[in-house]
Write a structure and sequence with these properties.
The chain is of the alpha/beta class and 755 residues long. It has four domains: 164 residues, 2-Layer Sandwich (Beta-Lactamase), CATH 3.30.450; 120 residues, Phosphohistidine domain (Glucose Oxidase, domain 1), CATH 3.50.30; 106 residues, Enzyme I, Chain A, domain 2 (Orthogonal Bundle); 320 residues, TIM Barrel, CATH 3.20.20.60. Helices cover 43% and strands 15% of the residues. The strands form three sheets. Strands 7-14-13-9-10-11-12-8 form an eight-stranded mixed beta sheet. Strands 21-20-19-18-17-16-15-22 form an eight-stranded parallel beta sheet. α13 crosses α25. It is elongated. The structure holds phosphoenolpyruvate and magnesium ion (MG). Phosphoenolpyruvate (PEP) binds next to β16 and α21. Phosphoenolpyruvate binds next to β16 and α21. Belongs to the PEP-utilizing enzyme family. It is an enzyme of class 2 (transferase). This is phosphoenolpyruvate--protein phosphotransferase.
Length: 755
């Protein structure tokens, strides 16, 4: 004999049947609300939907006056319903009218009902509506009933999200879920992109919410949990995992959560109430999200990400859906939305379809931002919470210069941006016209404009910008996107291709700058407290001469008898640079011995990006054929403020007195020693900062390719010498230097420069 089912499971079964019936939207919803009321022995059951104007509209009721449906509304925070929506938490009351928040709506005839239970209708932690049951008598709703109502609310949330109730929405209004949203982040690049959202880590879409066989769903959950725990254990025991690293810490947190009895109990309870295993994961995650999102404790909010990841992992095991978006077909104008990602992950996407990336984290000098820039993509970071609010396929506008992201923009806003894009296309066409003009200020100072690059793919852009060459080729990017260490042959092929594509323009190849946030997955790194100041870059290279020699060999060979420029990163003391030069010399001798043609000219330069080197420029400059300032690192170390953490780094203006004095000192010393100097950090690509650099005598600027046009336009309209004098005065002894940026902005305005 089949066991009779009752309570929430019976209700969910009835709901499933109702959902399959051929009914009009309002009739179906009314039937659902009646079923809930009957099942919970309630005198009233009401369902409110949150609209895009912030009002909660009564969509259906059993027990209140039917004429109040689609008429009665409450604002967020108003009345008990508004309170539940605002707090995203259930509310149980014995005597609702005596609650201070109770708001009486005469048209509903609500007054005789005392016992009250209301729950938020949640999806991805966002409130979509409120579901309420009420009884005439004093009655205390129990934990089980709250749980059952929350389970039912999960189904209603899904129905809202899948447009089931769209026919019930009044013209000119919409549900809150589709409300336009604006995110104020930090722009990493210029440019504007209009497109469709592609979630980097897409939420698994749960299609089947109501269980047919609860025992089977419990078994599926257990099997999936076991598989997930095994895979986490497996990753943890993997030989490459080093204790104390961030990745390992995250996995250990996952393991702790995955074995957390409270979490598993709640999942099992949701299944016992009639949900499928997938729906149970979603339901429990919803509550967790809603609770954690309201927390102001940054630690808790960070853990929320871990919990989200874990829930997504479990859903993937349950649905067998193991893909991230990089393997899927992208829409024509894809805008990638992610919490964060590494440059290698970004490069897995089809770049021809990718217009922009939007991250919840990241800083402007993070390497993913650098790669995005070099690929001509628009990028914005610090768009808080966008991952949980955006849906695949949503319209999105990314405004790089202001760092603003508009999700589901209104048609008017879209039109404004279409016009802006047209205008910027015009501007691009204008920059294209400038490309063959020599880059000389109005008062005759020649400014050399160069690209920062790192991928062969971005070299053809040289022809469009008219830049004179590549001032910084970040060779580590190729290593970062490879799955294993590129062999010498592969390196030679890559550098040859870069030289070929640059069509005779010089390229400065920087030796591998690994470490910090430039993680190379297949190179093991010991755990470090401060990786940016750790065993990285030149320190690592000198310690592992095999890697260094292979790269130098590849570079010297790839020159094929032509000129070669090699740049040594992260020089902290002069002896390190001398040592690097010695290795280059050894490889050069080896090349000659083996009968190959050596480069026609070989120049070796040092990067100035560690403050200590500023105090022995008189040692390093005579050793160097050229030098290059890495402002990203130099300014990070000068300020003791992480370049990737905008919260701290944006507090210190890079062209305010202390930094500009440091930069001027380097420029003056390089001039004194007659050593060519280039600025290759991100500063050089920003107009007002570039003006500051020219004002202190820097004439070689290397930047991301899209910055060349605007900087060149500025150079062409600039009278440089007067501002050089003004800045020199402002940097003089005894000056507070507060107004350097303002000084430059005023000058730009006087000169009519586009900044
Ligand atoms: C810098 O530090 O400014 C620089 C150019 O190098 P990277 O950004 O690659 O560290
Ligand atoms: Mg650097």
């Amino acid at each position: 004999m089949a066991t009779a089912i009752s309570g929430p499971r019976l209700l969910l079964r009835q709901l499933r049947e109702t959902m399959a019936e051929p009914l009009a939207s309002q009739d179906r919803l009314d039937k659902i609300i009646n079923l809930i009321a009957v099942n919970m022995q309630a005198d009233v059951c009401s369902f409110y939907v949150l609209r895009d104007d912030g009002a909660l509209e009564l969509f259906a009721t059993y027990g209140l006056k039917p004429e109040s449906v689609h008429l009665t509304t409450l604002r967020l925070g108003e009345g008990l319903v508004g309170l539940i929506a605002a707090q995203a938490e259930p509310l149980r009351l014995e005597d609702a009218p005596s609650h201070p928040a109770f708001a009486y709506r005469p048209e509903t005839g609500e007054d005789p009902f005392r016992a009250f239970l209301g729950v938020p209708v949640l999806r991805a932690g966002q409130t979509l509506g409120v579901l309420v049951v009420q009884n005439r008598d004093h009655r205390v709703y129990g934990e089980d009933e709250t749980e059952a109502l929350l389970t039912t609310a999960t189904i209603l949330a899904e129905m809202i999200a899948t447009s089931e109730f769209d026919a019930l929405i009044k013209p000119g209004q919409d549900i809150d879920l589709r409300r336009p949203r604006t995110f104020t982040g930090v722009g990493f690049t210029d440019g504007i992109a209009l497109g469709q959202v592609v979630l980097h880590d897409p939420r698994v879409v749960v299609v089947n919410f109501i269980a047919e066989d609860t025992a089977e769903e419990t078994r599926r959950l257990e099997a999936a949990l076991a598989t997930m725990r095994l895979s986490i254990d497996d990753m943890l025991s993997h030989g490459d995992m080093v204790s104390g690293t961030e990745h390992r810490d995250i996995l250990e947190t996952y393991r702790m959560f995955a074995n957390d009895r409270g979490w598993v109990d709640r999942l099992e309870e949701a299944i016992a109430n009639g949900l499928t295993a997938e729906a149970a994961v979603e339901r429990v995650q919803n509550d967790t999200r809603a609770r954690m999102l309201r927390s102001t404790d940054p630690y808790i909010r960070d853990r929320l990400h871990d919990f989200d990841d874990l829930a997504n992992r479990l859903l993937r095991v349950l649905t067998g859906d193991g893909t991230t978006s990089s393997t899927r077909e992208l829409p024509e104008n894809a805008v990638l939305v992610a919490r964060n990602m590494g440059p290698a992950e970004l490069l897995e996407y089809d770049r021809t379809r990718l217009r922009a990336i939007v991250l919840e984290e990241g800083g402007a000098t993070a390497h993913v931002a650098i790669v995005a820039r070099s690929l001509g993509m628009v990028a914005v970071g610090q768009a808080e919470n966008i991952v949980s609010i955006a849906e695949n396929g949503d319209d999105i506008i990314v405004d790089g210069p202001t760092g603003t992201v508009y999700l589901r923009p209104t048609p008017e806003l879209q039109q404004t941006y279409v016009d802006k894009v047209r205008l910027s296309a015009k501007r691009r066409a204008h920059y294209l016209e400038l490309k063959d003009k020599p880059s000389i200020t109005k008062d005759g100072v020649a400014i050399t404009l160069l690209h920062n690059s790192g991928l062969v793919a971005d070299l053809p852009m040289l022809a469009d910008t008219g830049a004179e060459g590549v001032g910084l080729f970040r060779t580590e990017l190729q290593f970062m996107i490879a799955s294993k260490l590129p062999r010498v042959g592969e390196q030679i092929a890559l550098y040859r291709e870069a030289i070929r594509l640059s069509e005779g323009r010089p390229i400065v190849f920087r030796l591998l700058d690994i470490g910090g946030d430039k993680v190379i997955p297949y190179l093991r790194a010991a755990p470090e407290e401060n990786p940016a100041m750790g065993f990285r870059s030149l320190r690592l290279a000198l310690d592992r001469p095999g890697l260094l020699r292979t790269q130098i060999r590849a570079l010297l060979t790839a020159a094929d008898g032509g000129p070669m420029k090699i740049l040594v990163p992260m020089v902290t003391e002069t002896w390190e640079f001398v040592e690097a030069k010695r290795v280059v010399k050894l490889e050069l001798e080896r090349l000659i011995r083996s009968g190959q043609t050596p480069p026609s000219t070989l120049e070796i330069g040092a990067m100035i990006e560690v403050p200590s080197l500023l105090f022995e420029l008189d040692h390093v400059l005579p050793e160097a054929d050229f030098v290059s300032i890495g402002s990203n690192d130099l300014i990070m170390f000068l300020n003791a403020a992480d370049r990737a953490n905008t919260r701290v780094s944006k507090a210190y203006d890079p062209i305010a007195l202390p930094r500009l004095r440091a930069l001027r000192h380097i420029v003056d010393m390089a001039k004194r020693y007659g050593v060519p100097i280039t600025m290759c950090g991100e500063l050089a690509g920003r107009t007002i900062e570039a003006l500051a650099l020219m004002a202190i005598g820097m004439t070689r600027l290397s930047m991301s390719p899209p910055a060349i046009g605007p900087i060149k336009e500025m150079v062409l309209g600039l009278e440089l010498k007067p501002i050089q004098a003004a800045v020199a005065a402002a940097l003089g002894e005894g000056q507070s230097g507060v107004g350097i940026r303002d000084l430059l902005l005023d000058w730009a305005e006087q000169q009519g420069l586009a900044i």
